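Quick one: co-fold with 2'-monophosphoadenosine-5'-diphosphate.
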Amino acid sequence: MLFGVIGDPVAHSLSPVMHNRAFAETGYNGIYVAMNVKNIRGAVTGIRALGVRGASITIPHKIEIMKYLDEIDEMALRIGAVNTVLNRGGFLKGFNSDWIGAMNALKEKTSIAGKKILIIGAGGAARAIGFGINSEGGKLTIANRTHKRGEKLAADLGGEFIPVAEYRKPQWEIMINTTSVGMAPNTEAMPVKATWFEKNMVIMDIVYNPLNTRLLIEAGKKGCTTIDGVSMFVNQGARQFELWTGQKAPLDVMARIVRGALQKHRRSAID
Ligand code: ATR
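Sure, here it is.
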């Protein structure tokens, strides 16, 4: 069975290494490749013609692909983006595994229901995670640099909006960074000040390059529980694997190979 990630760019995607390792571990007869695609409509025709069993969809195609699919799962419709396609005999169904990946990453360390949760950012990732938190019964606040965008997402999610600049005292139990702030090469940057953290908070970052972002390092120093970006990435991949194969994903080996690949990347970047 053939699988792949469809996006532009995809050269540095860690999905091939993760899914091929999962296939090898479970004995599933699959192979997963990176496909750099500009024409998403043509790619969907290709999936049908070639009998590609499943695909991960990434930037910039997560929204446009929706109009070429036969069915879209309810959460993916609500979020407004598809990152996973399952091909059942030419019938293509779209899913979003990001929200469930984020929820499972959180649940490895904390409960969600009734918790006061701050999402930093108001882009596509924030939207997927926000709908996930709503479905788990968390109490949401959105903080964003651009007020208009933050207010819109907060309204869509039925949560509150706070402008980042107007923050006063820590009041959240869980804080999630969905912006790219802190990503290499600007690794000294933080989306919020360290004064936002208090002991016993859970701080999650979706940035995984570097693995230990400054946000997570500072949060760790304050005694917070931290969740890194690999955790969400691997958990969303596990959901994809389960949709495609009907088997339980080997989460631990997937996490190990992704963490190893990231460390190797870093070494070769330094060399
Ligand atoms: P994605 O789909 O990955 O979430 P996106 O839709 O481009 O990406 O959203 C990026 C988010 O990161 C936005 O919330 C953006 O804030 P704005 O709405 O103000 O643009 C936020 N972001 C990106 N770079 C930022 C920076 N340097 N400082 C603060 N926020 C930033």
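If it helps, The two ends are 37 Å apart (CA to CA).
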